[in-house]
Write a structure and sequence with these properties.
The protein is 60% helix and 7% strand. It is mainly alpha-helical. β2 and β3 form a beta hairpin. 19% of the residues are buried.
């Protein structure tokens, strides 16, 4: 398996730059991806393979691993430090990585033993990457792709108009109000029953 980003094309599913990273969506760590109720983003014990896979490309410190994995996942998943750092310590204890102090940071390098471990478990890594690709594909396709494109159109139109008219134009307030009402309309179906119940209770 080559050490290239092309093996991790998850972010490419989010066209136009308006994928989950843009609006702050995250699958909570350990949660199930959309349309994958029986599967997690990474099953127990799989993160070590993914981290080793990243370190095979080049040495990285812990925070860099977190951000790189977030980038590879198109922004829809970010591992927590509580997952990454203990896993790095485990890999170091097993002799699969070594830590080198550099500018006050522990930079992790894969060892020959770590590379041999990856090679021995190539089928496991291929399965992990393919499953995650499939999960992201499920999220980015169909109705979600249409939603993604619609959101991107709104965002582009909003900022294009805002830059054109400038911050002092009264029309900016109207655009803001349109967006606020749209957000309330989207959120409304779930929140309205509780609000109506509170109003009814206050009226009694």
């Amino acid at each position: 398996m080559g050490g290239h980003k092309e093996d991790w094309p998850f972010g490419d599913f989010f066209a136009g730059g308006f994928g989950p990273r843009f609006w702050g969506f995250r699958w909570p760590e350990g949660s199930h991806g959309p349309r994958r109720r029986r599967q997690q983003i990474f099953e127990s014990g799989e993160v070590k393979y993914v981290i080793l896979r990243l370190l095979k490309e080049k040495p990285r410190h812990g925070y860099e691993i977190i951000k790189e994995l977030e980038e590879r996942m198109g922004g829809c998943y970010t591992p927590s430090p509580g997952t990454v750092y203990p896993t790095l310590q485990l890999l170091e204890d097993q002799g699969y990585v070594r830590a080198v102090e550099s500018e006050g940071k522990r930079v992790y390098h894969i060892t020959p033993e770590g590379e041999a471990f990856l090679e021995q478990h190539r089928d496991v890594i291929d399965d992990i990457l393919e499953r995650v690709r499939d999960t992201v594909r499920g999220f980015a396709g169909g109705p979600m792709a249409e939603l993604n494109q619609a959101f991107g159109r709104v965002a582009r139109a909003t900022y294009k108009q805002a830059w054109r008219i400038g911050p002092d134009d009264p029309a900016l307030a109207r655009i803001t109000e349109v967006l606020r009402k749209a957000a309330e309309e989207i959120e409304g179906p779930r929140e309205r029953p509780a609000a109506e119940s509170a109003q009814e209770a206050a009226a009694k």
